[in-house]
């Protein structure tokens, strides 16, 4: 899942981003509304975690722009105000969900995951394919009933492949969905991660390399 965190309180923004990355999400961070508009114009995000009171361009205007562009991106709006009228106003702007500050990180994570599921074709909460079961909410993976311990990026790559339901996923698509914008597009990180993932999943291999195209399960 690709997420953009837009929050002018840099310590909070960085903390949220770090926590979401630990949940196997690819996260970009910006600290003002103008930078947010620039990012959503370049990258495809599943979810934007958007503070409402932003410098340069207000969060309301960022939300309006996302809606106007007809993007499948879901918006989780944050605000220091917990008034019902503010929540209603935020939702009427086109936000998909609303979370007042301060918030529990576990609730933020759950809401981001729930919104992320709305950007894709509905699938069962537990993904199953080729003897593998993947639970995105619990971050658990089993093969033939045996639990497999994966690092966050390995989990993210496996989730993207599982959600493709047998379709080929290119290295570029994996890089876009499982890594953030700071990753060098010419790196071999995708190939190395897939190799490690194959090894951890065991024999017989379930991830197939399609020469010149990418990978599939």
Task: Describe what you observe in this structure.
It contains 8 helices and 11 strands. The longest helix is centred in the middle third of the chain and has 14 residues, at 105-118. It has 2 domains: 2-117, 3-Layer(aba) Sandwich (Rossmann fold); 127-216, Winged helix-like DNA-binding domain superfamily/Winged helix DNA-binding domain (Arc Repressor Mutant, subunit A, Orthogonal Bundle), CATH 1.10.10.10. The mean pLDDT is 88. Strands 2-1-3-4-5 form a 5-stranded parallel sheet, sandwiched between helices. It has a 4-stranded antiparallel sheet with strand order 6-7-8-9, covered by helices on one side. Helix 2 (33-40) runs parallel beside helix 3 (59-68) and helix 6 packs across helix 8 (189-201). The chain is of the alpha/beta class.
Structure, briefly:
The protein has 217 residues and is of the alpha/beta class.
List its traits.
217 residues, alpha/beta, Rossmann fold, Arc Repressor Mutant, subunit A, 2 domains, five-stranded parallel beta sheet, 8 helices, 40% helix
């Amino acid at each position: 899942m690709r997420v953009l965190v837009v929050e002018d309180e840099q310590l909070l923004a960085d903390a949220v981003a770090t926590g979401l990355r630990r949940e196997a999400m690819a996260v970009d961070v910006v600290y003002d509304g103008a930078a947010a508009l620039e990012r959503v114009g370049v990258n495809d995000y599943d979810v934007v975690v958007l503070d409402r009171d932003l410098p340069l361009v207000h969060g309301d205007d960022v939300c309006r722009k996302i809606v106007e562009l007809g993007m499948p991106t879901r918006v989780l709006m944050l605000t220091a105000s917990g008034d019902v009228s503010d929540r209603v106003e935020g939702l009427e702007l086109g936000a998909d969900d609303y979370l007042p500050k301060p918030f529990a990180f576990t609730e933020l994570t759950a809401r981001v995951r729930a919104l992320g599921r709305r950007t894709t074709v509905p699938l069962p909460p537990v993904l199953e394919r080729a003897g593998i079961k993947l639970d995105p909410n619990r971050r658990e993976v089993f093969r033939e009933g045996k639990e497999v311990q994966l690092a966050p990026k390995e989990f993210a790559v496996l989730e993207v492949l599982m959600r493709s339901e047998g379709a080929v996923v290119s290295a570029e698509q994996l890089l876009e969905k499982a890594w953030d914008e700071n990753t060098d597009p010419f790196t071999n990180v995708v190939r190395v991660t897939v190799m490690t993932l194959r090894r951890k999943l065991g024999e017989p291999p379930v991830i197939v390399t399609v020469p010149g195209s990418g990978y599939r399960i």
